[in-house]
Amino acid sequence: MFIVFKRKWWLLTIFLVTIFSALFYLFILREDLYQATAKVLVKLGQEQAVPTTVLGDRPNIIANRIQDVNSEVDILNSAQLLEGIVERLGLDKPSAPPPRPTSFISGLRYDVKQGIKSVKTWYKDTLITLGVREALPPRDAARWMLERGVKVEAKAASNVIAVHLIYPGREEARFILNKILDSYLEFRLKIFQDASAVEFFTEQRRQSLDELTRAQDELHQFERRHGITNFAEQKSVLLRQIAQAQTDTRHAKIELDEAESKVGRLDKELAKPNPDFAAIGQFSPNSFPANLQQEMAALQRQREQLRMVELDDSVRIENNRDQFKALMALTATHLRSVLTEKEHVYESQKTVLVELEASLRDLHDTEVVWQSLVRDAKISEQDYLFNQDKLQEASAIVALGRKQVGGVSVIQRAVNPLLPVGVSKSILLALALVFGVLAAGSWAVLAEFFDHGVYTSEAIEKHLHAPVVTVVPVHKRLDYWRRHPRNVDLILESATDVERARGDH
User: Fold this and answer.
1) Same domain (yes/no): 223, 274
2) What pLDDT, in 10s, does the model give residues 399-442?
3) Count of domains in the chain?
4) Do both 154 and 223 map to the same domain?
5) What is the pTM of this model?
6) How far apart are CA 366 and CA 370, in angstroms?
7) Helix (H), strand (E) at residue 417
8) What is the 3-state secondary structure (H, E, C) of 1-37?
């Protein structure tokens, strides 16, 4: 608060300058812009369809199509359309300034705006003279202003297009936007008018019909020669057989790999002095090798128990080892026989698969020729149907064009806007108040940071490294000490006495 009161006049000046500047801009300089709005409904019409002269299948229009709405948006934003509006309304020609209002405030505002406009014109002419800015023709400048003001919005999941025009003037915005809509309806009809194509598609339909007859005859002769009655079903059965053979081959390969792995582990264990039957792997429950493993496990437990009471070279232990080796030999014989069987099964499955794949290749060779003939017949049929549809559509478009049936409707024409667009003056004034407070506070912070003056007794003690004996307050009236000089002497004497007493102590 000491800082605020010390710099109160500067703070008040900055705050008032900010407020008055904001008021001057809002109520004198600022020019209100008004937004007029119109709405257009895009219907299903011949304009939204692909032209008949396009060589391709025309999609069936069964729902709202976003691309049609976007096409209408692009037409509304067309520079040629806006240039026609400029030429029709004469927006490129200089207009006479409005008459000066009679009231003082309105007249002052009018004079200030005219002065600012003159300054802007002089500044632009100066830049053009210096070569910094390029001079635009009046028509291009007017069209550029319309392009900035026209905003076309396509609403999501809707066939309604909203057209906005932001322009300085309530009635001017409505009038210009309605003229844009009228020109748009005329302009789009000229764009979507299709040239007559009835004769062209009549000839194309006759040629495609001859080609279709020839292709169908070749296909029928080929099917009779090769006895093709249901080619797709034959191929489907063969593919299922190949898929089953591939599955069986993979299973046989997996079982073969498993048998080879077990034989390899068995050979590795047999090479050891004390083979471990558990390293061979797992077998199916109640199978022959699984039973052998259980017997070997029992012999190994018995051998370990005998070692507790007998020596390793005793007769019983040796007999146990011989039985264990015999069981291991049986296991090895069984595993090798199983491996031989798996190899035979795998080779048999591979042979079956190879034969089926050969049959598939032969069938495929026949299918290639058959599909080529089918494809030629189908293409010929598509060409015939395409030309037939194009002929019908071309005839329908000619009839629609004669009656000027369009695919859009204006469902809302522009009316005079009620309020100007943009941030309201009250909000801008509140922001100016906040900015004024912040600007004044920022200036006070900077001024206090660079101010090295001494204003308090604490600052004196800080800079002089000496205590303050007393503080003499400044009276509100400046001539107080001149009228009471004795008080000053008494204060000085008391200060001297205090310093002397402190020094004596």
Assistant:
1) yes
2) 665 554 556 778 888 888 877 777 777 888 888 899 988 988 88
3) 3
4) no
5) 0.46
6) 6
7) none
8) CHHHHHCHHHHHHHHHHHHHHHHHHHHHHCCCCEEEE
